[in-house]
Amino acid sequence: MSARDGDPRVPLYQNVKSELLRAIAAGEYTPGEPFITQREIRERFGVSNTTAVKALNDLVVDGLLVRRRGKGTFVAEGPRTTRSDEDGADASIMCVLSLLHDRSPHAARLIRGVEAVCAELGYRMFLSDTKGDPDLEERALLRAARGGAAGVVLYPVEGRAPLPALEGMRRRGVPMVMVDRYRQDVVADAVVADNFAVGFQLTEHLVAAGHTRIAVLWEETDSTSVRDRLAGHLQALQRHGIRQRREFSVLRPYLGPPADSRIETVRDLLALAEPPTAIMCANGYVLAGAVHDLTSLGVQIPDEIELAGMDDGGPLELPPLTLVSAILPSEEIGRRAMTILARRMAEPDGGDVEHVVLPIGIRVRDSSTGHLRVVRTQAPGPG
To answer: In this protein, which residues make up the domain named HTH gntR-type (predicted)?
Structure first.
């Protein structure tokens, strides 16, 4: 049968839920035994993943079903409880622990996507900010593994968090989806932007505008998103027969060092016999730092140096300042990640690991070029 044959005045998931309630009341499913799976609900009622998950979640919250991590969904044997049972089921609250270290608009939109799906499916989201610290990330993951999180959306910090925390999650059957970047040493679902395309397409636009000396300024240096962007940049240079210059693309942090060291990086680039005519900035915060440092050195933007942004978030409005900037599908990353996570929570053995790569957008400055003029024309001395 199709759930669409039910009362059209109520949400579709309610029709599915009513049919499942009738089946439970009729004794079609024995208490303590596995319940119908999300996939079987989709096939039986002809509904979407979201509808199937919402119907199951409501039955869990109502205490008629329980979830046992690593095992699946079962018909409840007794009254609903608010504590986890011996198998790790929690019928009252579905927790999604999001671990994020990035405070940029990109991260805010990503969280919004996660929250939107949580609201649709009846999950409660707890947010843990790791502040870019691997130790804080490890503690948060251990809390998730031990303390009742039904699943985790993980925005990994730079570098590698200790594996025991991730292994603890695996042993306890807590599913995890990584966002923005992924860990090559961890088998887990991931949803990312096409970071190779970020580096490749920005470089293509700069080359088309006549630039062959393109420097790159980074914030992080040890993540898959950074390495993919660098690979795309270098591939575009190679495609056009442009020589790669180590001093232009070396992976070194620009925002991390003190301000005097940071400005020295820019001063060293400008002092080269053939200085860059364009700079690609890892994000909006790097771009803001580059604008500050370039203008303090008397450089006019874009007359002397063009800028490009690898995402569209940060403290400055990018379009007037950049020739070209990438637009990341931030909210869609969050939505897709949470949708995958919900499926993993409903069906722990529900298929192969997914690695989803979402397309990016490109914003090109129009003819009304923005300019930054500098009052001080003499560069400050060292120190």
So the answer is: 10-78
- Find out whether 92 and 58 touch, Cβ atoms under 8 Å: no
Residue 376 per-residue DSSP state: -
Cis-peptide, bond into residue 302, ω within 30° of zero: yes
Classify residue 285 by burial, with Cβ atoms within 10 Å: 0-12, 13-18, 19+.
buried
Tell me the whole-structure pTM to 2 decimals.
Answer: 0.75
Cα distance between residue 182 and residue 195, in whole Å:
12
Encode 316-343: b = buried (16+ Cβ within 10 Å), e = exposed: bebbebbbbbbbbbbbbbbbbbbbbbbb
Residues in the chain: 383
Give me the helices (H) in 159-280, please.
Answer: 163-171, 195-208, 224-239, 246-249, 259-270
Contact between 52 and 40 (Cβ < 8 Å): no
Task: List the domains of the chain with CATH numbers.
Answer: 3-75 (1.10.10.10), 95-192+330-358 (3.40.50.2300), 195-327 (3.40.50.2300)
